[in-house]
Specification:
With about 300 residues, this protein is an alpha+beta fold. About 30% of the residues lie in helices and about 30% in strands. It is globular and about 65 Å long.
């Protein structure tokens, strides 16, 4: 049995398909497509020093690792690397080789700390601890059965409140960017972000093939963006809430629930059967909202960090 690690080949369609299959098997609570894999590689900011590493066993792709610098962090030297191995091929050294290759690359680029997400299982946490990683914060994957679950009715809208979709902002997405920037800056995180690059957001968020603009709901109050829920989809049956946020001036008025209710109801009408989301364990308000909708925690991952050098 021969294990090798190499870089993803963007020119090879088979690579994108095999990577998507491996990632879906390793993390079945996310939405991944070959198109999103290719998009991430081809549009990576040069400052990210990004590499998509591939692990093969006897020529079969069995795992991947997204590796790069957190170039938008306010603190220099922050980086990330998370090996993900197909469950049928764990225990053969692919994860170790991916992580070692990633750390060598990041160290050469000046990384001081490497952050990695680790599934909250005894085996995964032992793997991380053995390699010098310490836990920082957990997050919960959650699933909602759209096909058989019961969604709340859409309430009557208060005066001055409108529901739009992201598609309504295609001529000028800047109001959506500004809302995303404010909401993201208030989320719990190990790495503080400097979220002010509109062009970068357009390239990597707005143009992401997973972003479903028709299912992304934007709440307007007196014509201004007050809240939103960003929907991702695979074009088939899987829907994921990429981000739900309310601007500070409008919090406490139920707009996050309103946005999610509208988006989820339209996703079900469009034929989506499984809805997923993920929240930091300290994000009590969003966890409570998702529980209200009927989401159930299906897995937990824990952020880990290792200091290099």
């Amino acid at each position: 049995m021969t294990v090798i690690v190499r870089d993803f080949r963007a020119h090879d369609a088979k690579d994108a398909q095999a990577v998507a299959r491996a990632r879906r098997a390793a993390i079945p609570f996310e939405v991944t497509t070959p198109a999103s894999i290719l998009f991430g590689v081809r549009t990576a900011n040069p400052a990210k020093k990004y590499r998509l590493l591939i692990a093969e066993i006897d020529g079969e792709i069995v795992g991947t690792a997204h590796v790069g610098m957190a170039y938008d962090s306010v603190e220099p030297g922050q980086s990330y690397a998370t090996p993900q191995i197909h469950p049928d091929h764990r225990g053969h050294g692919a994860g170790s080789l991916l992580l070692r290759t990633a750390e060598e690359h990041l160290a050469a680029e000046g990384a001081a700390n490497v952050y990695a997400w680790v599934m909250d299982t005894p085996e995964s946490r032992a793997f991380a601890e053995k390699r010098g990683y310490r836990p920082t914060r957990p997050a919960h994957f959650q699933r909602l059965d759209l096909a058989n679950g019961t969604l709340p009715p859409l309430p009557e809208l208060p005066a001055g409140v409108e529901l739009r979709t992201a598609a309504d902002f295609e001529a000028d997405p800047r109001p959506v960017f500004q809302a995303d920037a404010e909401a993201t800056s208030d989320e719990p995180s190990d790495i503080s972000m400097d979220f002010d690059d509109y062009d970068d957001w357009i390239r990597h968020t707005w143009n992401n093939p997973l972003l479903d603009r028709e299912l992304t709901t934007v709440v307007l109050v007196d014509g201004e963006v007050a809240a939103f829920t960003a929907a991702q989809s695979d074009g088939g049956t899987r829907y994921m809430s990429g981000m739900t946020g309310t601007l500070r001036a409008h919090r406490g008025r139920g707009f996050a629930k309103l946005a999610k209710t509208d988006s989820l109801r339209r996703a079900r009408a469009a034929g989506y059967t499984d809805a997923f989301t993920s929240n930091d364990a300290d994000n009590g308000p969003m966890l409570a909202i998702n529980k209200w909708f009927g989401y159930e925690i299906c897995a937990t991952e824990v952020r880990h960090v290792r200091t290099l050098g």
